[in-house]
Protein 1
Amino acid sequence: MNLAGRDLVSINDFSDTEIRAVFDLADEMSRRLERRTASGPCRDRIMATLFFEPSTRTRLSFESAMLRLGGQVISMPDARSSSAAKGETIADTVRVVQHYSDLIVIRNPLDGAARVAAEYSDVPVINAGDGAHEHPTQTLCDLYTIRKEKGSIEGMNVALCGDLRYGRTVHSLAYALARFGARITCVAPPGLEMPDHVRNRLRRDYDCTPAEFTSLDQVVTDREVIYHLQVPATQVADAAGSDQLMPVWDLMSLFDVIYLTRVQRERFRTHAEYEAAAGSYSIKRAMLDKAKKDALIMHPLPRVDELDYRIDRDRRAAYFRQAGNGVPIRMALSALLLGAEDPGPGTHPPETHATPVNTPPGLVCPNERCVTRNEPYLTPRFVSVAGHEGALQCAYCDREVQQP
Ligand code: NCD
């Protein structure tokens, strides 16, 4: 099965075997980069980067990836200088840009915007972040980093910390971690917890119910460690019997990966709401003393005040290496979608759990930031939620709604 011509809007658009194929090709791309033999596969191909929100890493690593592959890039200097500023819709923008390029990479503030782009484009579309919805290519970089540095994803105890409500990277990442068998713990201040539709899907489709805490400073009991964090009871008993660890554990000491996120200021309705949440998460140098000796501290970046600069020199600080992995990963992904590389035998597309339904008259998505509430030509579309009588999900932003 080929990935040529496909879109990547949600991380769930790719099966596990397809994600592994991206990782294997990214390894190969790294080797070619070292040997300086990477350019070639995408000669005569053009990537268009349409960024309607600020970006440094995602955009530059996509552009660098395409140039490294021997291809070319067209791009808007910034959204204010594009026709979007004159009111051009997402649909019209991609219907035009598809004639100028072979692959479109889009970032937009509306939840579900990338799905719309994919629906209207004849060339493959990659979601580089759509509002608070998903950021699947960041997830590919994150998973690849964990796999590379820890050897595997399965069985890893991963803490997702910070703004889990508006942080799109953690939505895609939670799905992928669950699919690859990691144990997830969510650490978020009240009000910024993982949205219901993400939690429900984790439970329903991937049989994963993350443990939830409000602070990384928390101490937890043996019982919580065994039941919520799923550390085997024998391991807990061994540790409790040792001199170093007591039957009450520092939460920090339990994780193989601690993934921090920035509070997403741009998604709050008022500055006061943001101020109330800001600064709620940070890792100070001293907190690292409690972490495992081989833990990974990760962050999609940019950081605000989540990570003490004094941590940067610690080997466990993986965030700059994580950002660096963006180039081979995006080289692999772009080459596969362009059909310039073959994913190899054994890959197959994902099975779908969602069935489209006829939209009940008058039903609109309850999410104000959903693309269907902001782009007038779109008709709301829903899919049924398997095993949940009457529950529907927006086909663009995934928000759940009860059938009237
Ligand atoms: C993230 C994003 O844009 O969602 N940045 C990135 O792509 N590396 C995270 C963030 O902005 O906080």
Protein 2
Amino acid sequence: MQNLVVLGSTGSIGGSTLDVVSRHPDKFKILALTANTQVELLFNQCLQFKPGYAVLLEEKSAQHLRERLVSAGQDTEVLCGAAALAQVAALPEADTVMAAIVGAAGLVPTLTAAKAGKKILLANKETLVMAGNVFMEAIRSSGATLLPIDSEHNAIFQALPPGYDGDLSRSGVRRILLTASGGPFRNYSPQQLQHVTPEQACAHPNWVMGRKISVDSASMMNKGLEVIEAHWLFNASADLIQVVVHPQSVIHSLVEYVDGSVLAQLGNPDMRTPIAYGLAYPERIASGVAALDLFKVATMNFEAPDLIRFPCLSLAYQALRAGGTAPAILNAANEIAVAAFLDKQIAFLAIPRLIETVLAALPVATVRCLEDVLNADAEARSVALRHLR
Ligand code: NAD
Ligand code: MG
């Protein structure tokens, strides 16, 4: 029986995780669930999974949840605040932590789980983008297990040799091919891109996801963040990571070897597959995902990414090559820009412009510890907000 903490249980990944868990009551026990503000959904999840702990960000919503649980006769302990997220991520009884909070808010609790030596199922890619070296060092020194949940990275993990030791060339790997759907605006002209709305950006053709990652997919910043994520996970330099646009999202990524072999992982676009893989690793369990029907897929297409129409991808490569605090600055500026776009304060094409402005405004510093990352994040947010006004 694995004791599981789900950080961000009310989100898209959180919900898919609980769906897989509910299929295997003999294998997993929910120890803690956490959410930002969604009291009602968290209450229902508590009734179904009976966790020892539930966490909400604000005391008012935590009090509301406490009262609801008491009147339902359930004894889940309700905690509140960012410190409580880190606290549940490091509970001694916890075996596995699903890191599924969106954005920079996920960094500290995920890093805490890493320092505590947990098995970490990493969906929160922002942790690696912001603090890749600090996080990977925490994993190494605590002996924690890190399993990528992002579908592309999960595919690469599956296509690399078992027990891959972080040396691509020693494993005979020539390149990593990171697939991208191209998002809802893949075929839009620059003129059309000027007028797209948050609703259009959030209507992804293949995946149902939270709003932030949906906008990132539409701008292709998601793929940029994933290039940086792949760099840290697999110790791959930027030159060895090639983005391939594959609109059907059936091939989740590929690894090319020096002998000409290319290994891929395929499946229906449903996050329950990588989640089930991570939960049961190294075994396999049912995920609820339908079998892939290749006759229905029929055709698979591939194209090179268009860096002119989707400059966010170039900005991410640029930040990865600059190193140090540059990816944290990129991530912070992107979070501010995406929130402003979702709030209809700025146009879609203003997202890369704002990020570029913030990257140009701030010097890149070395990252020695978490504080260096948090300082860069705070500074980049304040510069971005200043440019929005
Ligand atoms: P979501 O918006 O659906 O859910 C986010 C979760 O985080 C919710 O439970 C929310 O309550 C919680 N949360 C939000 N802000 C918070 C804060 N400030 N403090 C504490 N909790 C907070 O997002 P999602 O689509 O599930 O994505 C979660 C993460 O997984 C992201 O990092 C995303 O990039 C990554 N990811 C998602 C998918 C997907 O298919 N949805 C695929 C790959 C990777
Ligand atoms: Mg992905």
